[in-house]
């Protein structure tokens, strides 16, 4: 009986030691579940945020008795854009279908700046503080929409921020191509112009149909808890010159235009390493605006960016402390 008691006791001690070892191993394991690249990007954002707060606490003045840290203009631009997206843009609920995202409204912000190739941290902080105030005012003014991306560009004397809004939900489209009965006027919302449904669809035209069908082809990369960095959007246009305003266009021709816009947006213009995530509404642009029946072509804007996953276990302010 004593042997049995000592045997059970030994087993319990070994189990307790093993359990303690497992718990200790768990504590020492890296807490982050995101990729190393996304972790380092968020770390960079947190460090920038802290620098901005410290500079703001000193009224954006250069600290006494020392040289101030300088940033390159591109580093300041990238940091402001990435931080604004991390702090303000909300991707949650935007992608409710397998479709991509269509911009409902673009609210541009312009600030006067005086940046050369280098900018001090205090100057960058002053500009970013003003930018945050304007972003917050814009979000309040667009309360029924959702800010999903911020894109920032610099010139020597101006900062321009494009604030891109979307609806939290977007209606499904029926197809990503034109059917045999899809004979639409090029523009002006004149509706279907031939076939069994002629005269229907008033308020829609080739522009609206290209928009929804092109959008249906945009791949959906979204997963929850993400934000964007390296945001960019490019102008693309169809290569057709034999389209006229108010022209009745056959579905096979629309499908050729659709394929061309899709190819340009998805492949030919895509910056390396970025994902094609958004397409603006397609518009029919007249070559001669004074002639309402002028030739024209369809154009749109394609947006690109890199999805970053948020690491909610990373503490702010960031401290590089080893366990």
Rg value: 27 Å
Count the DSSP helices.
6
Q: What fraction, in percent, of the residue positions are helical?
A: 25-40%
Unreliable residue stretches = 1-30
**Elements, N to C (H/E):** HHEHEEHEEEHEEEHEEE
Largest sheet: 5 strands, antiparallel
Commentary on this structure:
The protein has 323 residues and is an alpha+beta fold. The chain folds into two domains: 1-30; 34-323, no CATH class. Helices cover 35% and strands 23% of the residues. Strands 7, 8, 10, 11 and 12 form a five-stranded antiparallel sheet that branches. Strands 2-5-4 form a three-stranded antiparallel sheet. It has a two-stranded antiparallel ribbon with strand order 1-3. β11 (283-286) and β12 (295-309) form a beta hairpin. α2 packs across α4 (121-141), α3 runs parallel beside α4 and α5 (206-215) crosses α6. The longest helix is centred in the first third of the chain and has 27 residues, at 2-28. The model is unreliable at 1-30 (pLDDT under 50).
């Amino acid at each position: 009986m004593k042997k049995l008691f000592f045997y059970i006791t030994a087993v319990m001690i070994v189990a307790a030691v093993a359990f303690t070892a497992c718990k200790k191993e768990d504590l020492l394991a890296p807490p982050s579940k995101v990729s190393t690249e996304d972790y380092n990007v968020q770390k960079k954002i947190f460090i920038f945020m802290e620098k901005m707060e410290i500079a703001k606490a000193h009224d954006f003045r250069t600290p006494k008795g020392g040289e101030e840290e300088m940033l390159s203009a591109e580093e300041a631009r990238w940091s402001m854009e990435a931080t604004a997206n991390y702090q303000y843009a909300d991707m949650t609920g935007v992608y409710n279908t397998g479709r991509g995202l269509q911009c409902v409204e673009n609210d541009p912000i312009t600030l006067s700046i005086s940046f050369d190739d280098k900018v001090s941290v205090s100057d960058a902080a002053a500009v970013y503080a003003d930018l945050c105030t304007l972003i917050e005012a814009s979000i309040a003014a667009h309360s029924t929409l959702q800010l999903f991306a911020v894109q920032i560009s610099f010139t020597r004397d101006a900062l321009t921020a494009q604030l891109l809004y979307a609806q939290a939900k977007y209606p499904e489209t029926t197809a990503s191509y034109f059917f045999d009965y899809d004979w639409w006027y090029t523009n002006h919302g004149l509706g279907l112009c031939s076939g069994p449904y002629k005269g229907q669809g008033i308020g829609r035209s080739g522009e609206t149909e290209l928009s929804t069908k092109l959008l249906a082809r945009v791949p959906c990369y979204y997963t929850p808890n993400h934000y964007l960095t390296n945001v960019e959007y490019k102008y693309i246009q169809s290569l057709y010159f034999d389209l006229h305003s108010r022209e009745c266009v056959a579905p096979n021709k629309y499908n050729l235009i659709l394929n061309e816009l899709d190819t340009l947006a998805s492949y030919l213009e895509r910056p390396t390493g970025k994902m094609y995530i958004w397409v603006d509404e397609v518009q029919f642009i007249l070559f001669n605006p004074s002639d309402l029946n002028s030739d024209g072509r369809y154009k749109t804007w394609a947006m690109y960016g890199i999805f970053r996953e948020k690491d909610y276990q990373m503490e702010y302010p960031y401290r590089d402390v080893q366990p």
